[in-house]
Write a structure and sequence with these properties.
- It is a single chain.
- By secondary structure, the protein is of the alpha+beta class.
- Helices cover 36% and strands 20% of the residues.
- Strands 1, 2, 3, 4, 5, 8, 9, 10, 11 and 12 form a ten-stranded mixed beta sheet that branches.
- Helix 2 links the parallel strand 3 and strand 4.
- The longest helix has 21 residues.
- Keywords: Acyltransferase, Transferase.
- InterPro entries: Thiolase, Thiolase-like, Thiolase_C, Thiolase_CS, Thiolase_N.
- This is Acetyl-CoA C-acetyltransferase.
- Its EC number is 2.3.1.9.
Length: 391
């Protein structure tokens, strides 16, 4: 009997919107509903056959509160019979959604699942849910027992990025050069139309009137080493600036994952198959380094070497992360984030996992390549790795 397989049939995303930019008028549930509609429409599957929606979202409050995954289904054209759940693995939330969806299919529990993510960082600002409780005098997420285990430690991704830069011997000039290359690659990919197949157009209001949002808003087509190097550092004596870190972004994304039985029953054409699912935890203080070690484990479990992977998507939360990852695994810089990354395209937190998968799968098809690996750092010292094979 053949081993069970999980297939990616469709993978889409919105173009990123800058904070206060073109997607600021979209309620996050409605924006997420659009990508749910898109994977159903583009795949041709009967929406009633969808057995679950797993929605990643980090800031689950305000308009993203009260189970935004279910709200997205109710804002879409999917029937009410489609259930949904909202999950939070920080920046890896929707990459974990992919892995949960694939696990459901591989286990035989379900045959058709949408993994998705949404984040309107304009309408529900990063950290806002925690700040509301702190302002009300109700305390923050760090408990007394955590304090006893990590006395005086502030869990900060910004500090983790600075720690990584120092640990791996990077300079600000190197980080800024990486950021510039991210913008150059993203601009080139946009001009070539490499994102066209993955982007779901959204109607937006502009000063010139109604328009379709189809291009990532954060790309700096005129970026130079001088302009990036002139941006103020986030900490005195540090190396991290807003220019070599990911951009605040609004967006949504979705991936349709099915079993072999569903492929045949619904006449679907797969884009890729899931080859490996890995998640690991590590040091919560340096926090952002775990993708290095998670990738080691994923490759070992898959019985592969890094040389067999054709493209890598490593989330550009901060420039030290992909640079340290590349150095650690011995990868080829030409295979890394070939269409740019979150420094240029934006990092819509809970939507980034399925967003990167959409870009990775379509890039494999565009270039006629076979294996892709996706990973990202996550708050708390976590990392997901997903390896896919183009079909």
């Amino acid at each position: 009997m053949a081993a069970p397989t999980a297939y990616i049939v469709e993978a889409v995303r919105t173009a990123g919107g800058r904070r206060g930019g073109r997607l600021a008028g979209w309620h996050p549930a409605d924006m997420a509903g659009e990508v749910l509609n898109a994977v159903a429409d583009r795949s041709g599957i009967d929406p009633a056959a969808i057995e679950d929606v797993i929605m990643g979202c980090v800031s689950q409050g305000g308009e993203q509160g009260f189970q935004v995954g279910r709200n997205a289904v109710l804002a879409s054209r999917l029937p009410e019979s489609v259930p949904a759940v909202t999950i939070d693995r920080q920046c890896g939330s929707s990459q974990q959604a992919i892995q949960f969806a694939a696990q459901a299919v591989l286990s035989g529990t379900q045959d058709v699942v949408i993994a998705a993510g949404v984040e309107s960082m304009t309408r529900v600002p990063m950290g806002s849910t925690g700040m509301l409780f702190a302002q009300a005098g109700l305390g923050g997420p760090k408990s007394p027992r955590q304090e006893a285990r990590y006395p005086g430690v502030q869990f900060s991704q910004f500090m983790g990025a600075e720690m990584m830069a120092r640990k791996h011997g990077f300079t600000r000039e190197l980080l800024d050069a990486y950021a510039l290359e991210s913008h150059r690659r993203a601009a080139s990919a946009t001009e070539r139309g490499d994102f066209d197949a993955e982007i779901v157009p959204l109607e937006v209001e502009t000063p010139e009137g109604p328009a379709l949002h189809t291009r990532d808003e954060g790309i700096r087509y005129d970026a130079t080493a001088e302009s990036i190097g002139s941006v103020k550092l986030l900490a005195e004596g540090g190396m991290i600036s807003a220019a070599n870190a990911s951009q605040i972004c609004d967006g949504a994304s979705a991936v349709l994952i099915v079993s072999e039985a569903a492929l045949k029953a619904h006449g679907l054409t797969p884009l890729a198959r899931i080859h490996n699912l890995t998640v690991t935890g590590g040091d919560p203080v340096i926090m952002l380094e775990e993708p290095l070690f998670a990738t080691d484990r994923a490759l070992k479990r898959a019985g592969m070497s890094i040389d067999e992977i054709d493209l890598y998507e490593v989330n550009e939360a901060f420039a030290p992360v992909p640079l340290a990852w590349l150095k650690h695994v011995g990868g080829d810089p030409a295979k890394l984030n070939v269409n740019g990354g979150a420094i240029a395209l934006g990092h819509p937190l809970g939507a980034s996992g399925t967003k990167l998968m959409a870009t990775l799968v379509h890039a494999l098809h565009k270039r006629g390549l076979r294996y892709g690996l996706q990973t990202m750092c996550e708050g708390g010292g976590l990392a997901n790795v997903t390896i896919v094979e183009r079909l």
